[in-house]
Amino acid sequence: MARITRVELSMVVLEPKVKRVDAIQSFVAQETPIVRIIDADGAVGTGYSYTIGTGGHSVLELLARTFAPALIGREAGMVEQIWRDLLFLSHATTVGAITSLALAAVDSALWDLRCRKAGLPLHVMAGGAQEKVRLYTTEGGWLQLETQAIVEDSLKAKADGFGGCKVKVGRPIREDVSRLIAVREAVGGAFEIFTDANQAFAVDEAIRRAHHYREADIGWFEEPLPADDVDGHVRLSASTTIPIAVGESLYSASHFRDYLQRRACSVVQVDVARIGGITPWLKVAHMAESFNVAVCPHFLMELHVGLCCAVPNARWVEYIPQLDGVTRTGMRIEAGYAVPSAEPGLGIDWDWEALGRHQAEGSARAIS
Known about the structure:
4-stranded antiparallel sheet, RHMD-like, globular, alpha/beta, magnesium, 10-stranded mixed sheet, metal-binding, TIM Barrel
């Protein structure tokens, strides 16, 4: 092992590739805090997290003022110990999105460093359970799109070998149903259609909509209710045969434990950035495995492909390309499957010149 001698911080701002609108919000821009950790041997690990348009500077300040100084002199290989120490260092602001996003940037950098020094890719270092995971696409299913555009995108995804697509819901119920049925009739019965409400509904409305969405044979009903309404999810899950998916808006392993213990969901969509890094992501994935529940993470496909292949219960990777403009090589896709990189580290081939062009003014910091 070697001690951490320097931490470099920056933030890049990436525009979405397509207009992204759901039932409650728009994806304005991906603010991407980036952490580079250098140890006494000169080895470097790079990690990151993201927002969808706000809060990125708050994450960066927490990193610069609190987390980065606390890393100097620590043994870089003690990843679990560092994660817990930083969690308790920021205990007054946990559990919460800003702290989790900052923790994730540090933790993923430490895992990248650990994997590189061991000469292993993330999916092997973290478990080595699978060689590839099925892909579904979300990019063609945004709420503002008209039915014909969604149908055309789903047909293209099917032709490209994808196993499914996601359609955002939250229009008047009959419009939602009409859109879903149009997609189902176009793609046939073997192609999965997932739906996502982005926490838009109250319990009574979610129960009613689940009943009507059944006609389209959907694969899951994602974030139907506010994420803190566990009781509502219990009621909904008990009222429908449609799998209920949650996780992108949960920020601790104990939140997932509550959902799993109470049978409030049947698909776990743990997001490595919002849960606080790779270290807690793996805990949630294995906890879900003990309940015989599948893991289908939210967003960040370039990082989640390695994590999904590390655990046996990962079923899908969500295709939303966002890093293509700042990486030299993209995520490998073969016949509708996401394949993890065989290179040591997280498997993300950053283009540092391109990152520099997108860097937020004044965001670069160095702590040593």
